[in-house]
Amino acid sequence: MRVAASSINVLMVTSEWPTREHPNWVPFIVQQVDYLRKAGIDMDVFSFRGSKNPMNYLKAWVQVRRILASKRYDLIHAQFGQSGMIALPKALPLVVTFHGSDLQGDATSQGGYTAQGKILQGVSKLVAAFADEIIVVSSMLEKIIGLNQRAHIIPCGLNLALFSPMDQKVARQKINLPLEKKLILFGGRPEMPVKRYELAKQVVSHIMEKDVELVVINNVAHDQMPYYLNACDVLLLTSVHEGSPTIIKEALACNLPIVSTDVGDVRERMGGVDGCVVCEDDKIETIAAGLKKTLAHGRRINGRDYILDLDENLLTQKIINVYCQALKKRFQ
CATH: 1.10.10.10, 3.10.450.120, 3.40.50.2000, 3.10.580.10. Which one for 168-309? Predict the structure, then answer.
């Protein structure tokens, strides 16, 4: 059975989506939706905030049932394992994308995992068992889920026209960053324990160089991110775990050197890139040594050559192919 993208009606369900207070949340999902629509997919988005409250999930479940009764859809695409709960029991074919914490659990800044995180893991694996097709953003998550025959590895993609190298001085002037300092960009929202902002601060303090500054970005519009990536000298990622961190791929696209803990698909993405460091452990001294080495290197990298296959246009077609496979099962 061949299915044209223009004939597929999709309801995307997601527990993460921009809000009035946080208009720049999950740009990788917003971008994916935009590209799917441009490719001809008729897609509506239902977003909700679970906030670890069962009543919020129940309310969302009722709302989704009303939506399904009001319009014909061909399938549901859930972003994150917990969002897939809203689609059960299945009324339509279900595609679920797992991003990381849904399968790995909620991490603390000390590297441990919460009880709620273990529940999240269980919920995600339950949803996976009922899904018609599964997307994971890295091969590491495929191993965790244990359903290799039904898992498609499709990372979140990049807008390579937006994320591209530019002159560092021009980028710094654009966002008012100092021209004379060595700037280390922190890779994550500081309020998220899994990102370990305190560890990043300790690492930078350990370097003990007056001309080094940690740059923290929070609630920055997605189209402004290339300026930060081009303005800084190195990206620092100190996360406890990740699925497939988008900022790593964006940094590579801008030829920004990276120092990162060994999480998600970071080693896979950075393995062959000269000027990047994947730390063997998460000790302050180890990460600081990686930063010193990278700052001493003092040059941009050739990372862009390693991520051309992550063009969102290419990955959009892969997602559409997954939709088609899910629909085939409906008619078998």
Answer: 3.40.50.2000
* Cβ neighbours of 99 (radius 10 Å): 26
The pLDDT tens digits for 166-195 are: 999 999 999 999 999 999 999 899 999 999
Do 275 and 293 meet the contact criterion of CB atoms below 8 Å apart? no
pTM over 0.85: yes
CATH of domain 5-157+311-331: 3.40.50.2000
Distance of alpha carbon 255 from alpha carbon 252, whole angstroms? 5
Q: From edge to edge, which strands make up the β-sheet containing 212-215?
A: 212-215, 182-186, 234-237, 258-260, 277-278
Q: What's the Cα-to-Cα distance from 242 to each of 103, 199, 258, rounded to whole Å? A: 10, 16, 15
> What does the pLDDT look like over 279-319, one tens digit per residue?
999 999 999 999 999 999 889 999 999 999 999 999 999 99
Q: Which ranges in the chain are annotated with CATH 3.40.50.2000?
A: 5-157+311-331, 168-309
Best CA proximity match to 214, nearest among 175, 240, 178: 178
Q: Is the pLDDT of residue 3 over 90?
A: no
